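[stage:ingest] chain + small molecule (NDP)
[stage:ingest] validated
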Amino acid sequence: MAVTQRKRPQSDKLDVKPATSAQTGKTWGRARDVGSFTITCSAIIMATCPLMVVYFWMACTSFQCSLAAPFEKLTSRGFSLVALEHGLEDLVKDNFPTPTKEGFQLYFAWLLFQAALYAFLPGKIGYGQMTPAGYTLPYVVNGLLAWVVTHALFIGASLGLGLFPASIIHDHWGGLLIAANVYGYFLTIFSYLKAYIAPSHKEDRKFSGSIVYDMFMGIEFNPRLGKYFDFKLFHNGRPGIVAWTLINFSFAVAQWQRIGYVTNSMVLLNFLHWVYVIDFFINEDWYLRTIDIAHDHFGFYLSWGDSVWLPFMYTLQSHFLVRNPVDMSWPWFTFVSVLGLSGYYIFRAVNHQKDIVRRTDGHCKIWGRPAKVIRTEFITSDGKTHKSLLLCSGFWGLSRHFNYVGDLLISLAMCLTCGSGYLLPYFYIIYMTILLMQRVHRDHERCKGKYGKFWEEYCRVVPYAVIPYVF
Ligand code: NDP
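[stage:predict] done
[stage:export] tokens:
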């Protein structure tokens, strides 16, 4: 879909009633009914994920990034209930992150600054996919400028003017973790209440009948403040993805302060993250039509996930390299660089093919030949038929999610910068594999509901989900 200059769209609302699949007659979009197993899992995830982030923080900060060490300390007095209670006391007393004034000040100043950039920097208007209730929403696409301004100011003010140490994020990592958690939970509850009291697009809300599940996966599809301040795009892009490279940079400076130089592994890790993040912002308009924006509702999964999980768990490798510097041999450095850049090439090329075929309505060449497409239909509630298409040549003829192969390769390369002695830095590739495999399933259900027999035809023509001839 084209990006146009910022202007007030004539109407962003195409239809207000729930859209239905031409074939099934069911509403597409997130499932409405959930069973007790799903609800229990949602409750467990909301309760345990914050503890997991704290555990990883503790492992890195106090135990040289050994994942086993905090557990060994916990159980050092034995496994009886009393022994575990004492073990937990020891662990909490010496190693838990504590709330600090600086942590809260930094976090909320950062959040407000990003919100101001998001709201006031100039940007083009991009459009998302039509929602199940028939809205095609406008988004201000100014992420690249926000990223450049943020990094230029941070580097200029710290290294240039010496107003604060560039390691400031690393130095307040524990206090920031607490502040981010407070905000993540606040945002979850705020979004839940907003869905009832002041929804942005009430026909796009999904109520599952379970407070826990609604809190976890969200009720509102595209909660907004005013016309343009979109919760999903803002929280994923700004406190989430802009922070990613800034955190890594701060950790690289912390490594330099500790050992007097920056290792080639840290340089490569920063480089790969920069490539991934800058690509995200250059193609921010494309992101509007990915599953995050086109399918997920806004609950704990995204609000806490973007506030805490993304900045703290996606940067574990740089935290690791501060505590355990790795000097890569040059052959290994070359191999990991080539692996990462190949992954990036695949990731970008696959996503580009989908974008170009949709933008040209299939009138383009893919790998030098006219694109092969399945022309699809889906119906909105006023009985109107909308047309779309599914590409089934090029990368999209190899498998239905070949972009995930590229993402997994670059993720693996990021982990490989940390050597082979520890499990912790490999958390990212393990997590990405689980996340993307689960997405395959979720996307399949969504597209089956939306496109019905056209999707079945696509699955027949392209039978593999991710890796050709394997899966
Ligand atoms: P996709 O970009 O593959 O989007 C899937 C959607 O594209 C489908 O729902 C459908 O939507 C449309 N589609 C499916 N098949 C076709 C086809 N053959 N031709 C045209 N359109 C099709 O998936 P994601 O949104 O999950 O991922 C986007 C990128 O982001 C990926 O490269 C992924 O690796 C990456 N990613 C990174 C994460 C991270 O944390 N680092 C997390 C998740 C993703 P419709 O028809 O409704 O438009």
